[in-house]
Structure formats: C-alpha cells, structure tokens
Amino acid sequence: MDAASGWTTGAGHSGPPPAIAHGGPVVVGVDSAPESRAALTWAIEEATRRKRPLHLLHARARQDSSGPVAPGAQDPDPVRTVVETALVRARTVAPDLEVTTQVSDESPATALVAASESASCVVVGSRGRGALTGAVLGTTSAEVAVRASCPVVVVRRLGVVETERPSVVVGTDGSGLSTEAIGYAFAQASLRRLPLTVVHACPSRSSGGYVAPWLSDDPAARVAEEQAATAEEVTGWSEQYPDVRVRRHVLRADPVKALVDHSRGAELLVVGSRGIGGVSGRLVGSVSQGVLSRAHCPVVVVRTGTG
C-alpha cells in the first residue's frame, strides 16, 4: 500500500484542554459482567486524570433472574452487590476521587443516554449485557453511541500499550465532520502526555471502497490530495495544542483495517460517528462499528456536536 506520513510538534501550553474542558462527571455503566470491570478501571483512571467526579450507573431493567432461593439461604440483593462492589473498587483504587452512584429502572441505554446530558463522557463495557457480539455492535452500545450528548467510550479491552509506540490514535476521513473527533484526540493526547497519530485511509474504487466522484482514483494523486487535506485538518488543533507531537499517516487501505492496525499498542482510539460512513437510523456508521468490534484498545466515539 502507498503511504505518506510526517511529524509535527511544538512548545508546551498551560490551562485545561479546550476540547474536553467542560464539566460533568465521568459516567460508567456497571453490571455483573466481567467486561464491566475493564470499563470501570478505565473510567476511574479517566476521572482521576481529568479531576472529574465518577458516577456509577447500574440499570436493572435487564437484570438476569437468579431463580428461587433455597430455604434457609440468604437472599442477596444483586443490585446492591453490583453497585457496592463497584463503589468499593473505585474508593480502593482512587480514595480521593468523588464517587456517586445511581440505580435506574430504565433500560441501560435509556439510563446512560439520560446521564450523558450532564456528563463529560459515558463509558461502557463492550461485551456486557447488550454489548458487542462477534463483529456486530450490540443494541445498548449502538444506541448510546448514537444518542448520547457527550463522547462515548467503548472498552472492548484495556489496551496492551507498547512502550515503543504508545499514542492516541484518531481516524479522519476528510469530510469536515471529523473535526471534533480530532480535537478530542488532541486533548486526550495532551492530558496523557502522548503523541497523536492521525490516520487517514483512502479506499479505492478498484477495491470496492467509496470514492467521491470528484476525487481522483490515481494512487499517487489521491495520497497527495488526502495528505494535504489531513494537514489542513490538523493545523488548527496543533496550534491549540503545541505540546502534542503529531504524526500524520495517509495511506491507501480499508479504513477499518487501517484504524484497527494502528490501535495495536495504542492507549486510545478516537473515531467520529458522522464521517463519510455516516450514521444510518440507530446504527453507528460502518467504519465506527467495524472499529468498535475489532480494536485492540478502548475506542471513543465522538458524534458531531458532542466533542
């Protein structure tokens, strides 16, 4: 595949990162699924890093029935157990962190979307109730990602960060609608003191990918066009975050495969949900959905208007 890349950097800056400086707690959905633990771990670290309160939300509308309790046996409250377990873990890991809890009788998606209205971000596990199954984004995660009023973090797994290539990765498609995702990624890179890798994958007509009619399908011409567009997208944010070292990587490849490959060894992958792939009905666009089901690290979905 053909590729072009480059690094830019600058001096440090002070003050909170503008793209994620707005208030509100880090909201995390908790349940009894093992994957919920990974989401909780990520949320605790994020709340601590951003100096935001942590809000533990358990929606019991889909709680599994445990069946009858044997005579003489103690009947535990599964809701209380889930919430208390999460609360104890949060206070053990981050004793100075402000933590609140909520139990909702709504569905998980409804409760999380409602909480997103006053949240800085919403964190969900990727294989809990209503989460990812195989390569298909499940109902709860998809609905929250599409309807939430803030960025949504889907923790499919906690990334195994490679010391030789730690970074925040963001996908861009040149549509002009990925600006907020890029800004969010810059802010995260600044907070984490990590470099940022901006990935722009150019599909080709020969491979069945969508190429706008006005764009050339010549490999060299396309890469040159997209490299210029990507540099323009990044310039403004680089000026706002001069401390972030940026690598621009423009390549001829399937966007999902390119982003999944770049997620290996990364701390975080950021995608927009309204690029050329778009959002159809209640489903996250094809690129975002493919990335969510295959990425090697947590993924942030930033919808236009929520960054």
From TrEMBL:
InterPro entries, per database record: Rossmann-like_a/b/a_fold, Universal_stress_UspA, UspA
Region: Disordered, residue numbers: 1-23
Residues in UspA domain copies: 25-156, 168-303
Entries under SUPFAM superfamilies matching the protein: Adenine nucleotide alpha hydrolases-like
Segments forming a coiled coil: none
Domain of life: Bacteria
The family this protein is said to belong to: Belongs to the universal stress protein A family.
Protein name, entry field: Universal stress protein
Organismal lineage: Bacteria, Bacillati, Actinomycetota, Actinomycetes, Micrococcales
